[in-house]
Amino acid sequence: MRDAYFAYASRGCIRKCTVCAVPKLEGEQRDAESITSVVRNIEARYGPKKDLILMDNNVVASPRFHDIIEEIRDLGFLPDAKLSIGRVPIQRRVDFNQGVDARILCKGPSYLRDLSRICLKPLRIAFDHLGLKAPYEQAVRYAHEFGLTSMSNYMLYNFHDSPADLFERMRLNVTLNEELDLRIWSFPMRYQPTNLPDRTHVGEKWTRYQLRAIQIILQATHGVVSGDPDFFKRAFGDTVHEFHELLMRPTLFQPRRSSSALVVSEIRLVPDSAFSWCPEMPADSAA
Ligand code: SF4
Protein backbone atom coordinates (compact mmCIF):
# COMPACT_ATOMS: atom_id res chain seq x y z
CA MET A 1 0.00 0.00 0.00
CA ARG A 2 2.92 2.37 0.61
CA ASP A 3 4.25 1.91 -2.93
CA ALA A 4 1.30 3.51 -4.69
CA TYR A 5 -0.05 6.59 -6.39
CA PHE A 6 -3.19 7.82 -4.61
CA ALA A 7 -5.60 9.80 -6.79
CA TYR A 8 -9.20 10.47 -7.82
CA ALA A 9 -10.52 10.17 -11.37
CA SER A 10 -13.92 11.51 -10.27
CA ARG A 11 -15.53 12.79 -7.09
CA GLY A 12 -19.01 12.79 -5.60
CA CYS A 13 -21.93 10.56 -6.48
CA ILE A 14 -25.13 10.52 -8.54
CA ARG A 15 -27.05 8.95 -5.60
CA LYS A 16 -28.16 10.11 -2.18
CA CYS A 17 -28.19 6.97 -0.06
CA THR A 18 -29.35 7.93 3.43
CA VAL A 19 -26.66 5.80 5.03
CA CYS A 20 -23.81 7.60 3.28
CA ALA A 21 -21.86 10.80 4.04
CA VAL A 22 -20.65 11.19 0.44
CA PRO A 23 -23.60 13.33 -0.78
CA LYS A 24 -22.95 15.79 2.07
CA LEU A 25 -19.16 15.73 2.07
CA GLU A 26 -18.40 15.32 -1.64
CA GLY A 27 -21.51 16.60 -3.43
CA GLU A 28 -22.57 15.87 -7.00
CA GLN A 29 -20.73 13.53 -9.36
CA ARG A 30 -18.01 15.39 -11.27
CA ASP A 31 -14.61 14.91 -12.90
CA ALA A 32 -11.46 15.27 -10.86
CA GLU A 33 -8.02 16.49 -11.88
CA SER A 34 -6.42 14.35 -14.59
CA ILE A 35 -4.89 11.25 -13.00
CA THR A 36 -2.15 11.41 -15.62
CA SER A 37 -0.90 14.74 -14.28
CA VAL A 38 -1.13 13.50 -10.66
CA VAL A 39 0.81 10.33 -11.50
CA ARG A 40 3.42 12.17 -13.58
CA ASN A 41 3.99 14.77 -10.84
CA ILE A 42 4.45 12.08 -8.17
CA GLU A 43 6.72 10.10 -10.46
CA ALA A 44 8.91 13.14 -11.19
CA ARG A 45 9.31 13.86 -7.50
CA TYR A 46 9.41 10.41 -5.88
CA GLY A 47 10.01 7.92 -8.68
CA PRO A 48 7.64 5.31 -10.14
CA LYS A 49 5.16 3.54 -7.87
CA LYS A 50 3.92 0.01 -8.19
CA ASP A 51 0.18 0.48 -7.62
CA LEU A 52 -2.54 2.96 -8.47
CA ILE A 53 -5.12 3.46 -5.72
CA LEU A 54 -8.18 5.41 -6.87
CA MET A 55 -10.52 6.70 -4.18
CA ASP A 56 -13.50 7.62 -6.39
CA ASN A 57 -16.88 7.45 -4.67
CA ASN A 58 -18.71 6.04 -7.69
CA VAL A 59 -16.40 5.85 -10.70
CA VAL A 60 -18.73 3.78 -12.88
CA ALA A 61 -21.30 6.59 -12.71
CA SER A 62 -18.86 8.94 -14.42
CA PRO A 63 -19.78 9.77 -18.04
CA ARG A 64 -16.02 9.55 -18.65
CA PHE A 65 -15.70 6.03 -17.28
CA HIS A 66 -14.46 4.49 -20.54
CA ASP A 67 -11.94 7.34 -21.00
CA ILE A 68 -10.74 6.90 -17.41
CA ILE A 69 -9.97 3.24 -18.14
CA GLU A 70 -8.09 4.24 -21.30
CA GLU A 71 -6.09 6.79 -19.30
CA ILE A 72 -5.17 4.11 -16.74
CA ARG A 73 -4.03 1.83 -19.57
CA ASP A 74 -1.97 4.65 -21.09
CA LEU A 75 -0.24 4.99 -17.70
CA GLY A 76 0.91 1.37 -18.06
CA PHE A 77 -1.54 -0.41 -15.75
CA LEU A 78 -2.47 -3.13 -18.24
CA PRO A 79 -3.43 -6.65 -17.13
CA ASP A 80 -0.25 -8.47 -16.00
CA ALA A 81 1.70 -5.18 -15.98
CA LYS A 82 4.88 -5.43 -13.95
CA LEU A 83 7.16 -2.72 -12.57
CA SER A 84 10.85 -3.41 -13.04
CA ILE A 85 12.99 -1.52 -10.56
CA GLY A 86 15.10 -4.20 -8.87
CA ARG A 87 16.01 -7.58 -10.25
CA VAL A 88 12.57 -9.09 -9.93
CA PRO A 89 9.68 -7.42 -11.81
CA ILE A 90 6.71 -6.81 -9.49
CA GLN A 91 3.06 -7.23 -10.44
CA ARG A 92 1.24 -3.88 -10.53
CA ARG A 93 -2.28 -3.32 -9.29
CA VAL A 94 -5.15 -0.87 -9.67
CA ASP A 95 -7.66 -0.63 -6.83
CA PHE A 96 -10.86 1.45 -6.80
CA ASN A 97 -10.81 1.18 -3.04
CA GLN A 98 -14.22 2.75 -2.31
CA GLY A 99 -16.02 0.08 -4.30
CA VAL A 100 -18.06 0.16 -7.51
CA ASP A 101 -21.82 0.33 -7.94
CA ALA A 102 -23.56 -2.98 -8.79
CA ARG A 103 -26.71 -1.15 -10.00
CA ILE A 104 -24.65 0.31 -12.85
CA LEU A 105 -22.38 -2.68 -13.49
CA CYS A 106 -25.38 -4.96 -14.04
CA LYS A 107 -26.74 -2.87 -16.91
CA GLY A 108 -24.51 -4.57 -19.46
CA PRO A 109 -21.15 -6.29 -19.89
CA SER A 110 -19.27 -3.18 -21.07
CA TYR A 111 -18.35 -1.95 -17.56
CA LEU A 112 -16.75 -5.23 -16.51
CA ARG A 113 -15.15 -5.61 -19.93
CA ASP A 114 -13.49 -2.23 -19.41
CA LEU A 115 -12.43 -3.10 -15.85
CA SER A 116 -10.88 -6.35 -17.07
CA ARG A 117 -8.59 -4.34 -19.39
CA ILE A 118 -6.55 -2.96 -16.47
CA CYS A 119 -4.70 -4.78 -13.65
CA LEU A 120 -7.60 -4.36 -11.24
CA LYS A 121 -7.21 -6.29 -7.99
CA PRO A 122 -9.45 -6.80 -6.21
CA LEU A 123 -12.74 -5.78 -7.80
CA ARG A 124 -14.73 -4.28 -4.90
CA ILE A 125 -18.50 -4.27 -5.39
CA ALA A 126 -20.60 -2.73 -2.62
CA PHE A 127 -23.33 -5.09 -1.33
CA ASP A 128 -25.11 -3.12 1.38
CA HIS A 129 -28.46 -4.89 1.57
CA LEU A 130 -30.24 -7.91 0.15
CA GLY A 131 -32.28 -5.71 -2.20
CA LEU A 132 -29.10 -5.47 -4.27
CA LYS A 133 -28.86 -9.24 -4.69
CA ALA A 134 -29.93 -9.38 -8.36
CA PRO A 135 -27.66 -6.54 -9.60
CA TYR A 136 -24.80 -7.74 -7.41
CA GLU A 137 -25.02 -11.32 -8.69
CA GLN A 138 -25.29 -10.14 -12.30
CA ALA A 139 -22.20 -7.93 -11.84
CA VAL A 140 -20.25 -10.86 -10.38
CA ARG A 141 -21.27 -13.07 -13.31
CA TYR A 142 -20.11 -10.43 -15.80
CA ALA A 143 -16.82 -10.16 -13.88
CA HIS A 144 -16.38 -13.92 -14.14
CA GLU A 145 -17.12 -13.76 -17.87
CA PHE A 146 -14.20 -11.36 -18.34
CA GLY A 147 -11.75 -13.27 -16.15
CA LEU A 148 -11.93 -11.13 -13.00
CA THR A 149 -11.77 -13.62 -10.17
CA SER A 150 -10.46 -11.69 -7.16
CA MET A 151 -13.29 -9.74 -5.54
CA SER A 152 -14.04 -8.10 -2.26
CA ASN A 153 -16.97 -6.21 -0.86
CA TYR A 154 -18.06 -3.98 1.96
CA MET A 155 -21.28 -5.16 3.61
CA LEU A 156 -23.20 -2.70 5.71
CA TYR A 157 -25.14 -4.16 8.65
CA ASN A 158 -27.10 -2.80 11.61
CA PHE A 159 -29.01 -0.36 9.35
CA HIS A 160 -32.44 -1.44 7.98
CA ASP A 161 -31.15 -5.00 7.46
CA SER A 162 -31.50 -7.99 9.78
CA PRO A 163 -29.00 -10.71 10.79
CA ALA A 164 -30.64 -12.99 8.21
CA ASP A 165 -30.07 -10.34 5.52
CA LEU A 166 -26.36 -10.12 6.38
CA PHE A 167 -26.05 -13.91 6.44
CA GLU A 168 -27.72 -14.29 3.02
CA ARG A 169 -25.32 -11.79 1.50
CA MET A 170 -22.25 -13.51 2.96
CA ARG A 171 -23.63 -16.93 1.99
CA LEU A 172 -24.23 -15.81 -1.59
CA ASN A 173 -20.51 -15.08 -1.92
CA VAL A 174 -19.69 -18.62 -0.78
CA THR A 175 -22.20 -20.03 -3.29
CA LEU A 176 -20.72 -17.95 -6.13
CA ASN A 177 -17.19 -18.94 -5.10
CA GLU A 178 -18.17 -22.61 -5.27
CA GLU A 179 -20.08 -22.34 -8.54
CA LEU A 180 -17.72 -20.06 -10.48
CA ASP A 181 -14.39 -20.84 -8.80
CA LEU A 182 -14.00 -17.24 -7.65
CA ARG A 183 -12.35 -15.70 -4.62
CA ILE A 184 -14.79 -13.25 -3.10
CA TRP A 185 -14.23 -12.13 0.46
CA SER A 186 -15.99 -9.38 2.39
CA PHE A 187 -15.79 -6.79 5.13
CA PRO A 188 -18.98 -6.38 7.15
CA MET A 189 -19.20 -2.76 8.31
CA ARG A 190 -21.41 -1.88 11.27
CA TYR A 191 -23.66 1.11 10.67
CA GLN A 192 -23.36 3.97 13.13
CA PRO A 193 -25.18 7.28 12.58
CA THR A 194 -22.64 10.04 11.98
CA ASN A 195 -24.38 12.29 14.53
CA LEU A 196 -24.03 9.75 17.36
CA PRO A 197 -20.83 10.33 19.35
CA ASP A 198 -20.55 6.71 20.58
CA ARG A 199 -21.09 3.29 18.99
CA THR A 200 -24.38 2.52 20.75
CA HIS A 201 -26.76 2.43 17.77
CA VAL A 202 -28.75 -0.81 17.52
CA GLY A 203 -30.62 -1.27 14.21
CA GLU A 204 -34.35 -2.05 14.45
CA LYS A 205 -33.84 -5.70 13.44
CA TRP A 206 -30.72 -6.33 15.53
CA THR A 207 -30.13 -6.83 19.25
CA ARG A 208 -27.16 -5.64 21.26
CA TYR A 209 -26.36 -9.30 21.99
CA GLN A 210 -26.20 -10.19 18.27
CA LEU A 211 -24.04 -7.18 17.47
CA ARG A 212 -21.62 -8.17 20.19
CA ALA A 213 -21.46 -11.73 18.82
CA ILE A 214 -20.68 -10.52 15.30
CA GLN A 215 -18.03 -8.20 16.69
CA ILE A 216 -16.32 -11.08 18.52
CA ILE A 217 -16.31 -13.30 15.43
CA LEU A 218 -14.94 -10.48 13.27
CA GLN A 219 -12.26 -9.66 15.85
CA ALA A 220 -11.00 -13.19 15.37
CA THR A 221 -10.56 -12.66 11.63
CA HIS A 222 -9.41 -9.02 11.61
CA GLY A 223 -12.76 -8.02 10.13
CA VAL A 224 -12.47 -10.19 7.01
CA VAL A 225 -15.05 -12.81 6.03
CA SER A 226 -13.29 -15.37 3.87
CA GLY A 227 -15.51 -16.89 1.20
CA ASP A 228 -13.75 -20.22 1.66
CA PRO A 229 -16.65 -22.65 2.27
CA ASP A 230 -14.96 -24.52 5.16
CA PHE A 231 -14.04 -21.32 6.93
CA PHE A 232 -17.45 -19.76 6.39
CA LYS A 233 -19.45 -22.71 7.65
CA ARG A 234 -17.34 -22.90 10.80
CA ALA A 235 -17.34 -19.18 11.56
CA PHE A 236 -20.90 -18.27 10.48
CA GLY A 237 -22.83 -21.50 9.92
CA ASP A 238 -24.26 -23.01 6.75
CA THR A 239 -27.86 -21.83 7.13
CA VAL A 240 -29.68 -18.83 8.59
CA HIS A 241 -30.81 -21.07 11.44
CA GLU A 242 -27.21 -22.05 12.28
CA PHE A 243 -26.16 -18.41 12.05
CA HIS A 244 -28.89 -17.36 14.50
CA GLU A 245 -27.84 -20.14 16.88
CA LEU A 246 -24.22 -19.11 16.63
CA LEU A 247 -25.10 -15.52 17.50
CA MET A 248 -26.81 -16.74 20.65
CA ARG A 249 -23.98 -19.01 21.84
CA PRO A 250 -23.31 -18.18 25.46
CA THR A 251 -19.62 -19.09 25.12
CA LEU A 252 -19.22 -15.99 22.98
CA PHE A 253 -20.08 -13.94 26.01
CA GLN A 254 -17.48 -15.08 28.43
CA PRO A 255 -15.17 -12.26 29.53
CA ARG A 256 -13.96 -10.40 26.46
CA ARG A 257 -10.45 -11.82 26.15
CA SER A 258 -11.36 -15.47 26.59
CA SER A 259 -14.36 -15.34 24.24
CA SER A 260 -12.26 -13.86 21.44
CA ALA A 261 -9.58 -16.46 22.07
CA LEU A 262 -12.20 -19.20 21.89
CA VAL A 263 -13.44 -18.07 18.49
CA VAL A 264 -9.89 -17.65 17.20
CA SER A 265 -8.99 -21.15 18.33
CA GLU A 266 -12.07 -22.60 16.60
CA ILE A 267 -11.37 -20.76 13.37
CA ARG A 268 -7.77 -21.94 13.58
CA LEU A 269 -9.01 -25.46 12.99
CA VAL A 270 -9.67 -24.42 9.40
CA PRO A 271 -6.73 -24.93 7.01
CA ASP A 272 -4.47 -21.92 6.45
CA SER A 273 -5.59 -21.83 2.82
CA ALA A 274 -8.87 -20.31 4.01
CA PHE A 275 -6.92 -17.24 5.03
CA SER A 276 -4.20 -17.12 2.42
CA TRP A 277 -6.66 -16.50 -0.40
CA CYS A 278 -7.71 -13.13 1.12
CA PRO A 279 -4.74 -10.86 0.32
CA GLU A 280 -6.08 -8.26 2.74
CA MET A 281 -6.06 -10.61 5.70
CA PRO A 282 -2.85 -10.20 7.70
CA ALA A 283 -0.73 -13.34 7.59
CA ASP A 284 -0.95 -13.77 11.36
CA SER A 285 -4.74 -13.39 11.55
CA ALA A 286 -5.31 -17.01 12.33
CA ALA A 287 -2.67 -17.00 15.04
S1 SF4 B 1 -23.91 4.97 -4.21
FE1 SF4 B 1 -22.28 4.69 -2.68
S2 SF4 B 1 -21.13 6.61 -2.65
FE2 SF4 B 1 -23.08 7.03 -3.68
S3 SF4 B 1 -24.42 7.83 -2.06
FE3 SF4 B 1 -24.80 5.60 -2.23
S4 SF4 B 1 -23.39 4.64 -0.73
FE4 SF4 B 1 -22.69 6.77 -1.05
User: What's the helical proportion of residues?
Assistant: 25-40%
Bound molecules: iron/sulfur cluster
Low-pLDDT stretches are: 253-258, 283-287
Order of helices and strands: EEHEHEHEEEHHEHEHEHHHHH
How are the strands of the biggest sheet laid out side by side?
1-4-7
Mean pLDDT: 87
Q: Strand-residue fraction?
A: 5-15%
Approximate shape? globular
Query: Termini separation (Å)?
Result: 23 Å
Structural class: alpha/beta
| Strand runs, count | 10
What is the CA-based Rg, rounded? 20 Å
> How many alpha or pi helices?
12
- Which sheet architecture does the biggest sheet show? 3 strands, parallel
Textual characterization of the structure:
The protein has 287 residues and is of the alpha/beta class. The chain has a domain at 1-148. The protein contains 12 helices and 10 strands. It has a 3-stranded parallel beta sheet with strand order 1-4-7. Strands 8-9-10 form a 3-stranded parallel beta sheet, with helices on one face. The protein has a two-stranded antiparallel ribbon with strand order 2-3. A hairpin with a 6-residue loop joins strand 5 (82-83) and strand 6 (90-91). Helix 6 packs parallel to helix 7 (163-180) and helix 8 (208-220) crosses helix 11 (256-267). The protein is globular and about 55 Å long. Bound molecules: iron/sulfur cluster (SF4). Residues 13, 15-17, 20, 22-23, 57-58, 101 line the site of iron/sulfur cluster (SF4).
